[in-house]
């Protein structure tokens, strides 16, 4: 299988869709100019807004979202595949006015070829006093997704999903050789857990793990960890932005490494049925 040049986009997404697109577009152009054929953006690429009233104004349906439309056109113009790590859009579920936190995979013709709604919503009370209730605004998804690309199968996850290893195992067993983890990690959890979790998921699955991140102090007052990272199937950090500034991270994926890692430790074939604990 041919090697795949990729780029992860690290952003500090503003609090309006127009500003968000103006922020991410030059980074994507830089990535394409650098030779990337698959480009990945972080969670919440279209806006980051804490205030419920502001979110309600920005929120629209997927097919009406200006950032999604602009990024589809950009992928077509540049001739690249683009993973919108996630966009916050109307879920379309009657009787539930919460949004979806949705990954969208765009092909080089600008078509949406796969979508995934974040399965695990971030409801936590951190030791620092930070309190997050993503479930109040986001309707969780109900299905795992593996998408076909010209280079192999890509498993889709988002941020807090990284803490649920059974999801990653299911994606790998469904044929994924690479898994995306677009994120907007908090600083306390990012500093403590981000790299360890990414490496663990890569080791457990024998997959490339691709993690583009939000970074720094945002307009709405939140801080995100940054440190966008590419981890190889043996668990080694292949590339990393060691800061929380916007930027572009390049890497080249060799899928023969996936085969070698899985042949060395064929853990995906060693599942056994077992009785539950007493």
UniProtKB/TrEMBL annotation:
Keywords of the record, alphabetical order, are:
Hydrolase
Q: Hydrolase among the record's keywords?
A: yes
> Sorted alphabetically, which InterPro entries does this protein's record hold?
C-N_Hydrolase, C-N_Hydrolase_sf, Nit1/2_C-N_Hydrolase, UPF0012_CS
SUPFAM superfamilies linked: Carbon-nitrogen hydrolase (SSF56317)
- Residues of the CN hydrolase domain: 4-255
Tell whether Transit peptide is among the UniProt keywords.
no
The terms under GO molecular function for this entry are: hydrolase activity
Per the record, the similarity remark reads: Belongs to the carbon-nitrogen hydrolase superfamily. NIT1/NIT2 family.
Q: What is this protein called?
A: Carbon-nitrogen hydrolase
Protein source organism: Brevundimonas denitrificans
């Amino acid at each position: 299988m041919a090697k795949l040049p990729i780029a992860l986009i690290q952003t500090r997404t503003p609090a309006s869709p127009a500003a968000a697109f103006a922020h991410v577009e030059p980074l994507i152009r830089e990535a394409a100019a650098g030779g990337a054929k698959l480009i990945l953006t972080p969670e919440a690429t279209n806006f980051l807004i804490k205030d419920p009233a502001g979110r309600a104004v920005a929120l629209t349906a997927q097919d009406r979202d200006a950032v999604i439309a602009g990024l589809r056109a950009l992928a077509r113009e540049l001739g690249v595949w683009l993973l919108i790590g996630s966009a916050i859009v109307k879920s379309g579920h009657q009787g539930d006015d919460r949004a979806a936190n949705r990954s969208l995979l765009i092909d080089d013709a600008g078509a949406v070829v796969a979508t995934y709604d974040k399965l695990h919503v971030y409801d936590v009370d951190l030791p620092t006093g930070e309190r997050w209730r993503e479930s109040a605004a986001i309707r969780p998804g109900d299905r795992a997704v593996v998408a076909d690309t010209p280079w192999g199968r890509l498993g889709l996850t988002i941020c807090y999903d990284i803490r649920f290893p059974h999801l990653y195992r299911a994606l790998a067993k469904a044929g994924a050789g690479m898994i995306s983890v677009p994120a907007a990690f908090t600083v306390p959890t990012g500093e403590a857990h981000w790299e360890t979790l990414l490496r663990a998921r890569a080791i457990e699955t024998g997959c490339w793990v691709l993690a583009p991140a939000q970074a720094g102090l945002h307009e709405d007052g939140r801080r995100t960890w940054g440190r966008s990272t590419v981890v190889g199937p043996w668990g080694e950090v292949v590339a990393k932005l060691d800061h929380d500034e916007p930027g572009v991270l390049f890497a080249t994926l060799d899928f023969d490494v996936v085969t070698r890692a899985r042949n060395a430790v064929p853990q995906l074939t060693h599942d056994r049925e077992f009785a539950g604990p007493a």
